[in-house]
């Protein structure tokens, strides 16, 4: 049996094509969660930014909700409100397998009652390093409770940021 050559061929053959994933926080290269998922994030397509503005929020005080994590940091939450926020969100684009995406979804507690994230599609502009850019659709992790994040910002417990940096990752 030959390998599928296009997404349509893959659909017909039952093989799932790889997924384009936009990461803007701790999954970026050199950040704390990238090391944990290096095998899933090994195929980088380039740096990118969302084509539209989105709010990006972090807690003002470092914290961690993951009992297996021994760090305190400021987890970023993209709020899926297109056209709002400080501007486009900067990050990186990776190609991941369906199994890799399943592991990342499990880590982000997607589809769980108390999960903090949901996976959504966003349009991104990818730069490949040779001043070439192209738009494509990618999956990303966004806040599963945008209203709660907004309420924390209003109470000044969280703040909106333009980009998630290594300083925020370190706490």
What does this structure look like?
- The chain has 5 helices and 8 strands.
- The strands form 2 sheets. The protein has a 5-stranded antiparallel β-sheet with strand order 1-5-2-6-7.
- The termini are far apart.
- 21% of the residues lie in helices and 33% in strands.
- The protein is of the alpha+beta class.
- The protein has one domain (17-170): Gamma-glutamyl cyclotransferase-like (Hypothetical upf0131 protein ytfp), CATH 3.10.490.10.
SSE order and pairing:
Layout lengths: L6 H7 L5 E5 L8 H5 L6 E11 L2 E4 L17 E2 L9 E9 L1 H10 L9 E11 L5 E11 L2 H9 L3 E3 L5 H5 L1
Antiparallel strand pairs: 1-5, 2-5, 2-6, 3-4, 3-8, 6-7
Brief characterization of the structure:
The protein is α+β, with helices and mostly antiparallel strands and 171 residues long. 21% of the residues lie in helices and 33% in strands. It is built from five helices and eight strands.
| The top level CATH class name | Alpha Beta
Radius of gyration: 16 Å
Give the structural class. alpha+beta
Largest sheet: 5 strands, antiparallel
**Helix-strand string:** HEHEEEEHEEHEH
- The spatial strand order of the largest sheet comes to 1-5-2-6-7
**What's the number of extended β-strand segments?**
8
- Euclidean distance between termini CA atoms: 50 Å
Q: Estimate the mean pLDDT confidence.
A: 84
Question: Under CATH, the topology is which?
Answer: Hypothetical upf0131 protein ytfp
CATH superfamily: Gamma-glutamyl cyclotransferase-like
The appropriate CATH architecture is Roll
Number of domains: 1
* Percent range for β-strand residues: 25-35%
Assign a percent range to the helix content. 10-25%
Low-pLDDT residue intervals, each spanning 5 or more residues: 1-13
Overall outline: globular
Number of helices: 5
């Amino acid at each position: 049996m030959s390998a599928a050559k296009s997404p349509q061929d893959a659909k017909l053959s039952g093989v799932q094509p790889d997924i384009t994933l936009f990461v803007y926080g701790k999954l970026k290269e050199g950040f704390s969660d990238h090391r944990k998922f290096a095998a899933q994030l090994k195929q980088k397509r380039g740096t990118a930014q969302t084509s539209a503005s989105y709010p990006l929020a972090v807690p003002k005080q470092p914290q961690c909700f993951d009992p297996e994590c021994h760090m305190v940091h400021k987890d970023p939450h993209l709020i899926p409100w297109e056209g709002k926020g400080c501007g486009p969100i900067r990050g990186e684009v990776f190609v991941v397998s369906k199994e890799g995406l399943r592991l990342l979804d499990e880590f982000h507690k997607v589809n769980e009652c108390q999960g903090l994230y949901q996976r959504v599609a966003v349009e991104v502009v990818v730069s490949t390093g040779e001043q070439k850019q192209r738009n494509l659709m990618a999956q990303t992790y966004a806040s599963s409770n945008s209203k709660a994040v907004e309420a924390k910002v209003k109470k000044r417990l969280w703040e909106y940021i333009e980009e998630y940096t290594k300083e925020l990752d370190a706490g």
